[in-house]
Amino acid sequence: MTGSWLWDSAIILSNYISIRADPDYNGGFGFFNLHGKTVVELGAGTGLPGLTASRLGARRVVLTDLPPLLPGLRNNVEVNGLDDVRVEVCELVWGADELPSQLNELQRGVDLVLMSDVFYDSSLMAPLAKTLKMVCHGGTVIWSASEVRQSTDECLNELTSHGFEVTELVSQPGVSTSETGHNNTNEFAIYVISPSNPIHSP
Ligand SMILES: C[S@@+](CC[C@H](N)C(=O)[O-])C[C@H]1O[C@@H](n2cnc3c(N)ncnc32)[C@H](O)[C@@H]1O
């Protein structure tokens, strides 16, 4: 299961969230205040970016993934001393017709969607786009970190063809030199993703 271990993209996205949550970031321009915000992580794996968002003040974080990954996510919430009110874990299979109740209960919608290392299989982008459209409202911000592979471009093109605009925010080398046996490019990027057509708030 690819989500059972921590991918470098998750570390890079967590660092980025921390930097943007600093009031002094870029002289205050671009400061992203997480206090009181609702956050959803898709394909969370071990959940580091979502857990980071919680530590930085998010009011509610929902970590989502396929069923086999949920026990590990719940364990990570517990060992980080976070309760299941501030950080919830639930199943969300991209492309499902309904959102889990934990997301439907977020009355003002989701403020921030986080995704790390989910751009590796272009056939998953149509279902991912469907889920993103269901999760997002007018003001939702989507940040995603990815290793830059050939498949990343294919995925982003596919996402674009399903109604999203993708802008690269940051490009940087990797954070670890782990010899995992993967064909790492050691080049990473963070993207902001937004619907091509405005989504109206509920
Ligand atoms: C490469 S792993 C990245 C995990 C984690 N975000 C990280 O960066 O460490 C991809 C993640 O996407 C999840 N995933 C893949 N297909 C999915 C689907 N159809 N619905 C929901 N999650 C999915 C996997 O279970 C896995 O946790």
UniProtKB/TrEMBL annotation:
Record's protein name: Uncharacterized protein
Highest taxon of the lineage: Eukaryota
Pfam families to which the protein is assigned, alphabetical: Methyltransf_16 (PF10294)
Transmembrane regions listed in the UniProt entry: none
Region forming the signal peptide: none
Gene3D superfamilies: Vaccinia Virus protein VP39 (3.40.50.150)
InterPro entries, per database record: Methyltransf_16, SAM-dependent_MTases_sf
Protein species of origin: Spinacia oleracea
Entry's Gene Ontology molecular function annotations: protein methyltransferase activity
PANTHER family: HEPATOCELLULAR CARCINOMA-ASSOCIATED ANTIGEN, OS04G0645500 PROTEIN
